[in-house]
Each structure stands twice: as C-alpha cells, then as structure tokens.
Amino acid sequence: MTSGPIPDASTLEGYRRVRADLPDLIIDEWLKEAAARRELANREASLAEREIALKETISGNVNRLEIFRLILGGTFLCGALLLAWWLASKDHPETALAIAALPVVGAIASAGIKLFRGK
Asked: Which residue from 3, 32, 88, 100 has the fewest beta carbons nearer than 10 Å?
C-alpha cells in the first residue's frame, strides 16, 4: 500500500525484480516532475508579481494623466476667460461672450462623452 507519489520499499523491490533499473526510473521521473512543479510555481509567482507591478504602474500613469488634464483644462479656462475679459474691455462683447462660452461647451461635451461611454 502506497500513500505518496513514490511506492513503498517492498513495491520498489518487486519492480526491481521485474527490471533492475525500474525503481531508479520511477524516482528519477518523480524528481523531474517535482522540479517541473516548483518551476511552474515560481513562474506563476513571478507572473503575479509582474502583474501587480504593471497594475501599479498603470494606476500611477492614469493619476498623472488626470493631473495633466486638470492643469491643461485650468490653463485653457483661465486663458479663455482672460481673452474674453480683454475683448470685452476693447468693446467686442459678442466675441468675448463666444470665447467665454468655450470652456462651458467643452465641459458639457466632456461630461456627455463620459456619460455615454459609461465612465
């Protein structure tokens, strides 16, 4: 009766009577299989570590992109409002109103895109 991957000593002796090198072959194959399992486990662990690192990198890049978008949007908003103020002070109220409305239109369009994309 065997309780593990390698037969007990009496069974191995029986195999040896059939073929002299059979127990050695069984043990060698078991050792190769155990090494292959360890190698597979190491590869899976390595892949899991790389996946975690990749997710952290992507998360960091997304955060940087959001900050960049905020800075760029704020710059555009300030520029549009300053230009609208300057145009209004130079007696061009219609043009100033159109330029001042650009950030509002952009914000509405952005919200609509996010809404329809499901984000």
From this structure: 3
Burial (CB count <10 Å: 0-12, 13-18, 19+), residue 64: exposed
HEC string of the chain?
A: CCCCCCCCHHHHHHHHHHCCCHHHHHHHHHHHHHHHHHHHHHHHHHHHHHHHHHHHHHHHHHHHHHHHHHHHHHHHHHHHHHHHHHHHHCCCHHHHHHHHHHHHHHHHHHHHHHHHHCC
Q: What letter represents residue 108's amino acid?
A: I
Is the full-model pTM beyond 0.70? no
Q: CB-based burial of residue 77 (10 Å sphere; 0-12 exposed, 13-18 middle, 19+ buried)? A: middle
User: How far apart, in whole angstroms, are the C-alpha atoms of residue 118 and residue 25?
Assistant: 60
